[in-house]
Amino acid sequence: MTYVDAIVSPVRRDRLEEYIELARGWTAIWRDHGALSTVEYAGDDVPEGKLTSFPLAIKANEDELVCISLITYRDRAHRDEVSGKAMKDPRFKIPEDAPMDGKRMIFGGFRMVLRDGAA
């Protein structure tokens, strides 16, 4: 079963295109080092909850979108290998004035436990 890194980020609405361009570059780096796939999603129907929600989790404000990145690998060992190489790649840079706030980003690695109803 595959393994996925999920990253949830607050991205400035007025800088979404800039974020997409950065993500294109990061995608190339991760794919060059062996990631199976990468996808980026921008929030479209992401309500703020009273106790918990995506916007509350990253403390998103009205000027920000909740964006989700998913990077897929064969397994945890493959993820550790690919991410280790990608993070050291000289092309991987986060601009000082990035369109997202890395301090409020949440992320984690997840192992697949069910696919199309089969464990």
SSE blueprint and pairings:
Blueprint: E1 3-12, H1 16-32, E2 37-42, H2 54-57, E3 64-73, H3 76-88, E4 106-111
Antiparallel strand pairs: 1-3, 1-4, 2-3
Describe this protein's structure.
By secondary structure, the chain is an alpha+beta fold. It has a single domain (3-111), classed as 2-Layer Sandwich (Alpha-Beta Plaits), CATH 3.30.70. It has 3 helices and 4 strands. It has helices at residues 16-32, 54-57, 76-88; strands at 3-12, 37-42, 64-73, 106-111. A 4-stranded antiparallel β-sheet has the order 2-3-1-4. The N and C termini lie close together (9 Å). The model has no long low-confidence stretch (mean pLDDT 96).
Q: Which range does the strand content fall in?
A: 25-35%
Estimated radius of gyration: 15 Å
Basic shape: globular
Assembly annotation: single chain
- The computed structural class is alpha+beta
Poorly predicted spans: none
Query: What is the count of structural domains?
Result: 1
In CATH's first tier, which class applies? Alpha Beta
Structure in a nutshell:
With 119 residues, this protein is of the alpha+beta class.
Pick out its properties.
alpha+beta; globular; 4 strands; 27% strand; 119 residues
